[in-house]
Amino acid sequence: MLEIEKLEQEIKEKLPKRMYFCYAQDTFLLFEVTRLVRKNFDPVVIETYESPEELDITSFASPSLFSSKTVLLIYNFEKIKKTEKRIEWLKKITSQVHSSISLILLCNASYKEISDEIAYLKKDKNSLLYNLDLKKEDLPTWIAYKASQNGITLKQDAIYYLIDITGGQPGLISSEIEKISLLTDKSHIGLFDIKDILTELGEFTAFDLIDAIKKKDKERAYRLIDKLQNTEPDMILGALNWYYTNRVNADPSVYNLLYRTNLSLRQARSCSLEMLLYELLKD
């Protein structure tokens, strides 16, 4: 079971523990926690803090007068810079906050950066910890989970296509799943269903670009790159990577080209995709 699924179970059980410490290097995965909390709790019982320093711990030493449960969403635990100060803050929280209050502490950091804090919380019987970062092998399971939340089932070819065209980025994958679920009445979606959905929209997609490259249609390919300027570059590179990976006898140098283009785009070089096209379409 994924860590986010374990946390969702706790949320559906109305957070019986006092402390839920969630950490990830991908901020999108942390905001997924917020979405689940807001989906399962009345907004009246949720209080949000942008950093631990905003929280007056003494004000939560007694139960709320207005509800039997209060949920505190606290972002940016990593803003407390020193490990000693973080552990000191955690000690105050775990010893002073009333049992009717549950804290969800969100930390944008890796395990290595907060290993001492994690070790401290593991000793506390009222705390649970969740490493929300996804390993490569967990991505297909996570995509299936996200699809089910949107009321659809994705077939294996669709799942691996989404991984390829997004570079495995959870935020982009989630956005694509949401779009697919809104644009089809089907409950089981395969790769060709996704292509059909995009075709019905009348949108130019990375598939059109791939078709132009296959046919060595330089004029159309450059027109399409211009039309796709509002598309995430990662989606275009992901689609190209998917195409060449599944192509028999693909030139291995293509992958180096895709890699160098990706690096260039990270450095905000706007002409990088055009240069990539030039290389791919050379005679």
Describe it for me?
It is a single chain. The chain is α/β, with parallel strands linked by helices and 283 residues long. The protein has two domains: 3-133, P-loop containing nucleotide triphosphate hydrolases (Rossmann fold); 138-280, no CATH class. It has helices at 3-12, 27-40, 83-96, 115-122, 139-149, 156-166, 170-182, 191-201, 206-214, 218-227, 233-245, 253-266, 272-280; strands at residues 19-24, 46-49, 70-74, 101-108, 127-131, 153-154, 188-189. The strands form two sheets. The protein has a five-stranded parallel sheet with strand order 2-3-4-1-5, sandwiched between helices. A two-stranded parallel ribbon has the order 6-7. α1 packs parallel to α2.
Features:
283 residues, alpha/beta, Rossmann fold, 5-stranded parallel β-sheet, two-stranded parallel ribbon, 13 helices, 52% helix, P-loop_NTPase, DNA replication, DNA_polIII_delta, nucleotidyltransferase, DNA-directed DNA polymerase
